Amino acid sequence: MKRTIYALSILSTIVVLLSGCGTSHDQQESRQVFRFNELGDVTSLDPAMSGSFENNWAVNQLFNGLVEMDDELNVKQCIATHWSISDDGLKYTFSLRQDVYFHDDPQFPSGKGRKVNAHDFVFSFQRLFDRKLSNATSLVDVINYEPVEAEGPNGISALNDSTLVIELKRPFKPFLSILTMKYFSVVPIEVVQFYGDGFKSHPIGTGPFKLKTWLEDTRLDLERNPNYFKKDETGKSLPYLDFVSVSFIDDPDAAFLQFLAGDLDMLSGIDAVNKEKTMQSDGQLKPEMASKYNLLSAEFLKTDYLGFNIDPNSELVKNNPLRLKLVRQAINYAINRDNIVRFRRNNLGTPATGFIPPSMKAYDRSLLKGFTYDPDKARELLDMANYPGGKGLPTITITTTGSYLDIAEEVRHQLNEIGIPTEIEIMMAGAFASSVAEGKVMCFRKSWIGDYPDPENFMSLFYSKHFSPGGSNYTHFSHSEFDRLYERSLTEQSDSARSDLFLRMEQILVDEAPVVPLYYDQVVRLVQKRVTGMTIDPTNMINLERVKK
Q: In Å, how far from its chain's centre is CA 529?
């Protein structure tokens, strides 16, 4: 109720913001204000804490890094004009643009944002090693830098104001892709040192927008950065928008009504667009909606799956039938993924055969012998596991959150049909996350979103040295050959050789079945017809640089 009331006041607040300082009515009308709602919460505007989706898109409006991704997941220049990599894959040298300036702030001389230099990047990267400050410490571990010992290696250095050098402990093929993450944005040394912990709510970056107002859980207002370094093909400065206003209504129905009333320019995510009211069964907009709105959709670097706790040292696992590979394989063959995508998701998504999404282009997918819907095969495997027709099989509990109850119900129905007794346990999101990480549940519905565009990121969930809660291996899958292939993929420089490694790793996962890949998700956005220039990519990044109204 609180956020709904706040939402009703947002438009009047924006009017006050835009009508101050003697601005005429004509000037107000000429300004472009983009409004959208975020169902989740932004908790920090510091790039070092940009791990969540909500923090990530907000930071993306305010900051830039050395490199960035295009819509096809290719790494391209941003603040770095070009770079070189040593033959041994250990040394990366970046040359920086000379026309990039931080947003204005009182900590700069005369309050004017100064030019970015390589020393700022050294400082920005060194911050990421501080576990109290950053949740990117595992990502920077490959850099040959020791933050504690003064005499230790210093693999982050500035040769001069425009040249940055990063040295790695070992060759790491995905390193450039990792640098596209918002963690690696540049921040100004003196501003961060002045504000300290307060930098998370007083962000000063180089991005297309700068912060105007942030009332946590209520609204976030950004205004155009007039000194942004990027220009369009005609030489016009970006961005085109003057203001961005974000509300935080956690009720998707209330936000949907605001969108229908024209008070919001965009809804993002399948939970926000109200698929029952807007979409046909084939995933296209209903005719009456298509005449008013545009639906943008693309493949998402996201795999939704069921995971099994298969840790042989766990008391929970020792007498559970899910410890048996035959039972896990039977469950994989018993699930009709096509029906899940068709009836539960309005055809938004792709039935999964493996764990790595096809948009990653990790290897030739026709070579993977993945799972298909085959209930007869499932029954055969149950017989082999000494559970003929499911007889004697204890009830399997699928643990999930309320947001995914519909998917869990479909899975339960399909498993019950072939004799696998199944029930559903609903938990609050926080309790669910901790229970999965601590190995307190046997079967759980979860998803993985690629942090960076490299297949290694998806395979890292099954590396034995990444056991949760310290890592992201929630199933506690352990396989010596998988580990060997995974470690090779980290240092292998040949793309074709890496493709072979990922195919072999995926085949092991299919054969051992520690998870049930359900579907590869899609990025979905519903936008008003008056909006142009909105792009989408497989990372679901919100980029407003070229948006117009």
A: 27
